[in-house]
Every structure is written in C-alpha cells, then in structure tokens.
C-alpha cells in the first residue's frame, strides 16, 4: 500500500516501543504503516522533512473540558489541540446522562480531533462552574443519576471510556463519600474504570484512595495542601504507595487549583512519577496557570522528569488508562496520530496554582500534528 504521508528524519520517541531513534514514519489508510530509514514515496505521497524535531505518538490529554457552548467551563477542542499538539482530548465529566446526547451531536461528532469522555454520574455534569457561579454538582444528591448514567454509558461505548465523579468540599459539600460510592456502583455495573476528582476535605485523600479499584484514576493527584499525597516530612504517604501497588492510577489534572510545585518536588524526589500528565484545561485556567498540555508537560521536564517519561505519561500510559491500546503508539497498525515537538532552551517562567513561580531552562512546544494519517496542523 502506498504511503499517504511520510515524516522524514525526525527523532522518534515512542515509549510504547522503547524507541528513541532518528527514523522515518509512513502513514497509510489512517494508520501507522511503517517505520524505517529512507521509506519510499510514491508521486501522491506527501513528504514532510521533520529533521531536528521530535516525533511522538499523538499526545493524549486525559483531563480536559471541551463541551464548548454546552457548559460554561468548556473550551474549543480543535483550537486547544492545534496549539497544544493534542490529538485525543478526553473530556472528564462536563456532561452527564441528562445532556450527553447534545455533547455527542454538537461537539464530539463534528470535531476533527478525537474526543473521548468520562460520563459524569451527576445528571447534567459540571453545570455550574464559572467565575461568578460555582455550584458543586455532587453536593445535591438528588442530582445523582446512576440508572441513566449506566444506560448512557452502555449505549455510547464508542466514546465513553469511564465514569466521573467529583468529591471534596467544593464539589460535594458535606456529602462526603456518598457520590463516590454511587459512581463506583455505576462503573462496576458497566465494567468501566472510574475517574475521581478530589479537592479539599471532606472526604480525605486517604478515604478516596481506599475505595478506588485497580485501573481507576485519581485525578488532581499532586494537589497542594490540604489533601496532598506527600507528608510534611517530604515522603509519600503510605496509603498512596499501597494504592499504586494495587493498580490505582495517578493523574495530574493541573487545572485552576490542583497542582503544586511543592507537592510535585516531593513526589518526584521519592521516585513517584505520575502515571499520566494532563492539563484539566477549562475556561478558568486556559489563560493560566495551566495554559495547555505542553506547558504542563514542560513543568515536569524542568523538575527533572526525563523526556521519554514525560512523553509516556501523555501517550502510552494515557492510552492504557483509557483501555484504548490502538492509541498512544507509533507501532505499525496503530491509529495514525503523531505530534511534532521541540524542546526549546532558555529561561521560561512557570507558575502553579498557589502562585509559586519556577524558572525552567526548557520548554516543550508543539510544532505540528498528524491526525488519522494526514498532516492536520499547521497547514
């Protein structure tokens, strides 16, 4: 089969294959077709010289809010993905069973970029999140809709990858663990993983982790105090280590209030890397402190996390969390998504959610995006 596109001479970093080498990549029929030196082009093949750039599997942002126009926190997925090198945007609970049909028809289906979703167990998802109105959708238990959530998740398995719930003082008030227990029951019923948001107690970090199952995701995992995974002495809490041992996944979910350099330094110093790096991008953090996915990745690079590990946390690890092994890889036969990256050197200012600034010496930048085996951006 002739190639539709060849990326020529880039440094391919694909953690799914433990590959870090200068090579060509050929795409055909929407998939990765071959890797190798001097791949042969036909007259109709588009050839792009990407020498000097890093070619990674298509970046997956495991935590976004892209129900644009349907919720006040939603941003435009295509604009975000163009700027951030993201090929798969995973919306985490913007929609619930009461409004997922609109999300699917008006946003997901017309999108040029892939959008997958965790379905919120609350009827209308995260409906009251803006700079003027802040309503915790898990606080009012009458909004919990497990029966319809199970039905909608089952009917939309092509797009819905799991169940979402938000617990904590701001998201669930004094409802404690009840919304989490309801969401876990739905996840169990449909055989999907759960993603749990956590903010200030109640409940505690320890209480939430104790209930999560292998394959479930705790997002906002490197939170500032309170509900941080690190002790005051800079060690990792025992309950966190035990949860990882049994297969709970730890996701960054930077957002407006959920990532602190102090916490990250302690976790990385103990060798506890996040399973997945995600931006939690939405209207209240796209202009800072999160900005985008590559900025979130850059923060970890500047704190000492090796580049292949940073890429793994935004590609193959995210694909495994989604149970979509065809994503996050450049193995022949995989979905034909790729992200072109550069690592710029200099002095760059980064900020976390509590206002601490870090001057980093490197910055990961998106230089191009391939989606479905076709060059998508920039034109």
From TrEMBL:
Gene Ontology molecular function: any one: metal ion binding
UniProt cross-references to InterPro entries, sorted A to Z: Amidohydro-rel, Deacetylase_Atu3266-like, Metal-dep_hydrolase_composite, Metal_Hydrolase
Residue list for modification N6-carboxylysine: 164
A Pfam match: Amidohydro_1
Superkingdom of origin: Bacteria
Residue intervals of the Amidohydrolase-related domain: 54-343
Binding site for Zn(2+) 2: 164, 197, 220
Key words of the record: Hydrolase, Metal-binding, Zinc
Name of the molecule in the record: Amidohydrolase/deacetylase family metallohydrolase
